[in-house]
Amino acid sequence: xxxxxxxxxxxxxxxxxxxxxxxxxxxxxxxxxxxxxxxxxxxxxxxxxxxxxxxxxxxxxxxxxxxxxxxxxxxxxxxxxxxxxxxxxxxxxxxxxxxxxxxxxxxxxxxxxxxxxxxxxxxxxxxxxxxxxxxxxxxxxxxxxxxxxxxxxxxxxxxxxxxxxxxxxxxxxxxxxxxxxxxxxxxxxxxxxxxxxxxxxxxxxxxxxxxxxxxxxxxxxxxxxxxxxxxxxxxxxxxxxxxxxxxxxxxxxxxxxxxxxxxxxxxxxxxxxxxxxxxxxxxxxxxxxxxxxxxxxxxxxxxxxxxxxxxxxxxxxxxxxxxxxxxxxxxxxxxxxxxxxxxxxxxxxxxxxxxxxxxxxxxxxxxxxxxxxxxxxxxxxxxxxxxxxxxxxxxxxxxxxxxxxxxxxxxxxxxxxxxxxxxxxxxxxxxxxxxxxxxxxxxxxxxxxxxxxxxxxxxxxxxxxxxxxxxxxxxxxxxxxxxxxxxxxxxxxxxxxxxxxxxxxxxxxxxxxxxxxxxxxxxxxxxxxxxxxxxxxxxxxxxxxxxxxxxxxxxxxxxxxxxxxxxxxxxxxxxxxxxxxxxxxxxxxxxxxxxxxxxxxxxxxxxxxxxxxxxxxxxxxxxxxxxxxxxxxxxxxxxxxxxxxxxxxxxxxxxxxxxxxxxxxxxxxxxxxxxxxxxxxxxxxxxxxxxxxxxxxxxxxxxxxxxxxxxxxxxxxxxxxxxxxxxxxxxxxxxxxxxxxxxxxxxxxxxxxxxxxxxxxxxxxxxxxxxxxxxxxxxxxxxxxxxxxxxxxxxxxxxxxxxxxxxxxxxxxxxxxxxxxxxxxxxxxxxxxxxxxxxxxxxxxxxxxxxxxxxxxxxxxxxxxxxxxxxxxxxxxxxxxxxxxxxxxxxxxxxxxxxxxxxxxxxxxxxxxxxxxxxxxxxxxxxxxxxxxxxxxxxxxxxxxxxxxxxxxxxxxxxx
Amino acid sequence: xxxxxxxxxxxxxxxxxxxxxxxxxxxxxxxxxxxxxxxxxxxxxxxxxxxxxxxxxxxxxxxxxxxxxxxxxxxxxxxxxxxxxxxxx
Amino acid sequence: xxxxxxxxxxxxxxxxxxxxxxxxxxxxxxxxxxxxxxxxxxxxxxxxxxxxxxxxxxxxxxxxxxxxxxxxxxxxxxxxxxxxxxxxxxxxxxxxxxxxxxxxxxxxxxxxxxxxxxxxxxxxxxxxxxxxxxxxxxxxxxxxxxxxxxxxxxxxxxxxxxxxxxxxxxxxxxxxxxxxxxxxxxxxxxxxxxxxxxxxxxxxxxxxxxxxxxxxxxxxx
Lengths: 960, 89, 221
What we know:
CATH superfamily of the largest domain in chain C: Probable tRNA modification gtpase trme, domain 1
Oligomer: heterotrimer
CATH topology of the largest domain in chain A: FAD/NAD(P)-binding domain
Structural class of chain C: alpha+beta
CATH architecture of the largest domain in chain C: 2-Layer Sandwich
Distance between the termini of chain A: 99 Å
Largest interface: A-C, 44 and 46 residues
Helix content of chain C: 10-25%
Number of strands of chain A: 51
Largest sheet of chain A: 6 strands, mixed
CATH class of the largest domain in chain C: Alpha Beta
């Protein structure tokens, strides 16, 4: 059993943490402040913490560091958090995942017994025929194979996630000895440094090392033991105003241009530094042998962390398998914590003595050489370990124990380095996978470059920090021969079927071999077929084992058997963090009259970022207010661009297909815009409002695009033109209906008579001190005036109109109503009734083109279009009274085949039957022709092509 | 895409602040034959290597400028004004 | 004369602001508790609506000589720098683009100095919203609002830049005590909501002109 320790032979145990408690699967677990969930669980004697993905094998705390999948739990309804990383809080509710009915008694563990019958791809091979079987099978498979379940009630939706940014001179990832030394050096050069570390306390693995610091670059640390020295170094830096420390920050990605992304609590930190130093360190190497996943098998550094950081003796009796002096260090720590050491099993021959090995020998602890672990016994907890020769075969000896420590070398934590687009390579000398080429401005240092002793780490960290601060290249460092740790064979071939390579996805050596036999003999294909390394840890704990075993079993060369690309996120990241605050989704544009519309009970319509009034009541009724009385719509979202200057006519003649030299002051003209490809994309009006001043109104959606396009042409062309984008500064309303003349005459000092202010003309006036531009246009088909004014008056003016208009029955109307009205009038909307293939001649707006100009945008294509025959036309149509109204977009049918489509379709409240616009073949586009519209329910309605418009076809109303 | 693009006016900014228009191309003469126009409208080189492109600093100074960008490595690029392109030639 | 409304008029109503008329504009004087707002300005951070400020943009090859006529010395400003006097401040946004801010109602007197503009001149007063962020913790609001580097040793007092806050394009003008955000009025309410949304976590509250009166110079603040 494991327990808390009060004292330790080699260091002073910190017992200051206050006692707290939380629930694990409903039972109370006592913890100390500073505990992780894992350390508290270990201290309480719990062995099983999770169940594996596929076979539901019991799993316990392994590295106490969150690099593997073993510690995934649900905390306060949030699934898939790492118990190794989450600090224990009083009263938290922790639940285990993927088991039924309970963690200790999981019925699905039966899967494990059937391992031989559940090979790779079993599900796909078994259930893909007949087809109907798969959805049923999938449901069952998902139930048993899985992780935590999402709290669909969304109980943590109230959590605040923020996105934050940092721009330090130097960003250092990893607060171990080399990271701290780099920080110290860079700070010494006057740099602003951001140091990220994934633990609550800086120091990395040094926090649990007893090694003496000798001949380090920092004299103040000389002779201290490593855990004291590292704390001293951290404390020395702590208060430097140029250093920002983010403890407990999980750096999950390094992206293009060295953008570093980290989860820091509920904040997503995006860090853009001049230089990035990756000092991510190394984890204990995975040892593959039979039943190597049993609860009670732990890594050396995990055990050391539990002892020295959390004050826990994690077992009664332990066996340590090692390949280097570090294993003896762990053994010493265990011994000092009162754990009975049954054996230290060293794969090396004698004569390899290190400092700790000597110390241990003096304690008379049995050491077995040239051996390693062969097999673990015990199901829910480790009971016995067989050891034998490194090359496998017969086991020599068994030890009863409840803890097996693996200290078989180190595995650089390459994930973040690999995201810099470098491929890992096997360094035969250092016996690790390394990434040799980093992108510009990125440095790596420390154990991520292979194991090294504390003074090397400090020295190299310092030199790298200095290099980064000075903008020099990454310094190259060698390793002393005694620093390299010989890797054991990729698998200890001791028999048995449960040599787990990937614990996340429950993939064993045997399964990998079967897949290789089936032809998946490259690392990439092997990964995809077996799902090796595709689990929650994303290969962090197994990528080396996968690559080395692939090499072993496929005969791939070392240079080909490299891990697959490691991609972000390197750690689990919550979706909330990535999505951020709701406002990150997109801002809203409002017109000045926005709150007037709300007061009137509007229903809004989203038009891009804009909120526009859709309608205030039934649009059919609103339309009748326009036709019979007077009504007002907010048109502030229209684009408004003013052009002037010596070359203004020349510029407009180039930009637009129309001609404007004869457009007099006070006149307004319909205009279209086309692209160089001749396709219609925009329409609006152009007015000469003062001598030489042309005012263009564009549609809502194109206001920014058109201004930007003008700017582009002005960048490349030689026009002396002034272009003013007045879209935000000028707002507008359109007041329209038979009573509008009477109404406006009563408040604006201007002659509104047909003679003085004819159709397609503009005038200027002043109302209550507000300057107005009035445009008599007819989008709704009714007598109407579009009134433009400075936006700051929008709210006041709207309310003024509504108040003064009351005796005339003035009503507000919205965009949906306007769509009905314009459809009655047969006006097209570019982008709604046209698309990226609509040429202006076919769309029926050829009248707005004057192509007898030297050059203009789209000229070449228009000429081509003119030569071709017209194939299709956009036509207005009407239905019979009583016919059902088809929806927008349905097909026009001839001889049972689709030959066109309806672009807009509405009930006309004025006429009492359906109207619309449709693309039809030119042959049936003559006025009076009939065509079939196929509704979604399969019924046909017969439409009649109209000459101009359904309403006021001759334009009598508009022009009088 | 997380690289930073250099705006000749505002300096290095996240690429999300910019709009890409197209590769830089010379517009054909008005009376060029239709095939030339078709190529101009529809064909792009999409070079592997360095190409000149039009970019717009949408979220910043609203300037149009040119970028010589190595399409295999976004971080290697040069930004300059259109008038400087003419000087180059 | 009809009243001019700030793009935040809806916010004023939602937060029950006390309003005051300034040069024909209805602006927030405070948001109900000037003492508390003052305290937040001293100790945490506040956001004030300065949308009524006069704003004039000048663009084109002659922008610099036109700007010089309105504010002496403006033609000498380096790009992304500013020049302020008691009533106005000139931003040089690019070689050929200026934005001038001036006291509310002061636009006409500036425009009078320029009889015949040679550049593209727009009175942007009603087109743009303007917020002032004050208080020591405003950096914490900004770092949650924009992806642009606003480190104080790099973006020093008196400099100006254009980027986005909460994806809304803004001109950001930094003084010793304030960060001033000029943006399209169409986004004002949305930008205010977004800033408040992140600001609330660092103690930001809205305030009005009585607590944070308009000033471009440190001396007057």
